[in-house]
Amino acid sequence: MAKFLYVYHGSGKMPTDDAERKAAMDAWTGWYGKLGSAVVDGGNPVGMSKTVLPSGKIENNGGSNPTAGYTIVEASDIDDAVAKAKDCPILMDPAFSVEIAPIIEMM
After folding, report:
1. 81-84 contacts: CB < 8 A, separation 24 or more?
2. Which whole number is the average pLDDT over 97-104?
């Protein structure tokens, strides 16, 4: 099995209401449960970032495609990894997307 990085992109707001937070956590827990042992690293959300451009210019808040978080999964190939990502709870918000990339073991 190969490992794949899911990078969540978008800039939405974290739920502030207790019921919304619980619903969001339940959705993620359910999705991770569905993926089972394919989840290598459940990852985490990330905070606001800065992007350094080749010119040395700094873009705040992740630039045009901010990273919102990540997960690492195992899958038989990239198509399998894509299929697993289709049910990701972050996709319930149209402002978000999931980028999927194979992790290339160098050592």
Report:
1. 81/2, 81/4, 81/6, 84/35, 84/38
2. 97
User: What are 90-94's contacts with CB under 8 Å, separation 24+?
Assistant: 90/8, 90/10, 92/27, 93/10, 93/12
d(CA 42, CA 34): 13
For residue 90, give the nearest of 41, 44, 38 by alpha carbon: 44
Do residues 96 and 41 touch, judged by C-beta distance below 8 A? no
Dihedral through CA 58, CA 64, CA 68, CA 74, nearest 10? -110
Which of 16-20, 51-55, 99-103 is the most confident on average? 99-103
SS3 64: coil
Q: Which two tokens stand for residue 43?
A: 């990852």
Asked if residue 12 has pLDDT above 70, the reply is no
What's the pTM value of the predicted model, to 2 decimals? 0.88
Categorize the per-residue pLDDT at 13 as very low, low, confident or very high, splitting at 50, 70 and 90: confident
